[in-house]
Amino acid sequence: MAEESNGSKWEGKSIVELQSTSANQAWPLLEDFFNIHNLIPIDTCYQVESVEGHPGPTRYCASAPKGAHGGADDHVLWVKERLLSVDQGQRCLSYDVVDGNLGFNNYVGTIKVVPSPSSLEGCKIEWSFVTDPLETWSFKDLTSYIDSSLQFMAKKIELACSKASV
């Protein structure tokens, strides 16, 4: 569920609850910064050299829009994201967008895994963000993308954890 935008910045948070996957099971899948393509519907993600002036491990994530044909790079939607911090104890990581063709400026995202208060076996995943308004997407489009990606992510994590426990 997204929050209201705040003045000149957009802020939002989506939360999903996993009923049968603990925070300790989910966190290792999420902290693997360079394999996010295994959890959300994007085509590729891999480590690249750090962007000059932006120290820290950087990943390149890309997808071709649905129905795109041909191999032209201008049809590929891409971002370079830099890992800002990882807190193992809090099961939390933060990243920012340092380059791309999606119109992000000053975007910082945080993904956190917390034990579920309503289930001894479950957990919650929270994906929050702060960004300058985008020219290419509306606030509603951005929050809808994050909501749907988080739902997809939750299903992938539950499936991976259920296979691991068999």
Automatic annotation (TrEMBL):
Source organism, top-level taxon: Eukaryota
SUPFAM superfamilies registered for this protein in UniProt: Bet v1-like
InterPro entries recorded: LFS, Polyketide_cyclase/dehydratase, START-like_dom_sf
Entries under PANTHER family matching the protein: LACHRYMATORY-FACTOR SYNTHASE (PTHR33789), OS05G0202300 PROTEIN (PTHR33789:SF11)
Protein name (Swiss-Prot/TrEMBL): Lachrymatory factor synthase
